[in-house]
Design a protein that fits this description.
The structure is a homodimer. By secondary structure, the first copy, chain A, is mainly α. In chain A, about 60% of the residues lie in helices and about 0% in strands.
Chain lengths: ~200, ~200
């Protein structure tokens, strides 16, 4: 995984140059409690990672199809002429796929928190477009980052069900995924809200 | 419903004195598209309203039990001495119950949008505590508003299943509820983010 990840353009997980996340260990622990994320969820999220690992491109096809079908979403990956920037979409796509793997497989430690902060900043004027030198709008509105909790959660269930797990296991993996996505979005909202976070 | 609602302290739905929501009809339509909220969801959300109507106090018992069990949440309803303010909690509870009914039963029109803005502001220094003259912290951090998508969604399913509907109907009601809650939180995030919204 690490070798593959190192080849993803703009993927800087664990890099020395990253800003440190201002989110404390206590903040993270309390967020986990708020989304009811416990030890069982950790286990089922790992299971989800195993299940999704060789389906990541199919999941991305669904998500990218959804974005491409909605002009109000694809515009954040388009240039001043309104045309989607293929190279930008492709680079973001590779990192989005790696995000699935990281969310399921990585420990949620300081390195993970630092990279959530980096992802957050890349949705805002502080860092959007810069990694990819793209001439697209300078932010993704917070409302869409939050609204994405629904499609990113709902569309994954069918993929979790494709490897012969029991209904109970699929449900448990799906709930762990829903909690993990909600917690991620809560972390990504930080730079939008400053002292309101 | 309207007569009962009029007796809820601080419930000002449809009042002339409310600030108007800056969210446009187009903004709302695009948010609905982003959470995949369609005509079937409208119908199933109405059905959920029928199912939940006489269970609202039971739902609130679960949600209040969750908040009460977590000091990092109940503190936003506590005074400077750290003790929960019972009168404040009771007043908020009555409006929280009415929010369930409104979300399921009201048309999502300008009056509804204006009241979502009012609810949003009541989570921030602009309006928190003022309606209830409570001496509690002056905001609910955005991260917890977002994180609540999970418990507010997950805990409702068992109540949706209690009125003899088919598994398919319960699932459809639950998905409509999940979408509606996510969209509500996206609206409530507006005052936290200003031009990042």
């Amino acid at each position: 995984m690490m070798e593959a990840a190192a080849e993803i353009p703009g993927y800087t997980y664990g890099s020395e140059g990253l800003q440190r996340s201002p989110v404390s260990d206590d903040d993270l622990e309390l967020l986990k409690q708020t989304v009811l994320f416990g030890e069982d969820d950790e286990r089922y999220l790992r299971m989800a990672g195993d299940v999704l690992r060789d389906q990541v491109e199919d999941v991305l096809d669904v998500w990218y199809g959804f974005v491409a079908a909605h002009p109000h979403l694809v515009r954040y990956f388009a240039g001043p002429d309104g045309a989607p920037i293929d190279a930008y979409l492709a680079r973001v796509r590779a990192r989005f796929g790696q995000w699935i793997r990281d969310l399921c497989e990585r420990p949620w430690d300081r390195a993970w928190l630092d990279y959530q902060e980096e992802i957050a900043l890349r949705h805002t004027p502080a860092k959007k477009n810069k990694t990819d030198e793209a001439d697209a709008p300078d932010r993704i509105p917070l409302r869409y980052v939050i609204a994405f909790v629904y499609p990113i959660t709902a569309t994954v269930r069918e993929f979790l069900a494709r490897k012969g797990h029991s209904e109970q296991e699929v449900d448990a993996m799906h709930q762990a995924w829903f909690k993990a996505v909600t917690l991620s979005v809560a972390l990504w909202s930080r730079p939008y809200a400053d002292d309101g976070w």
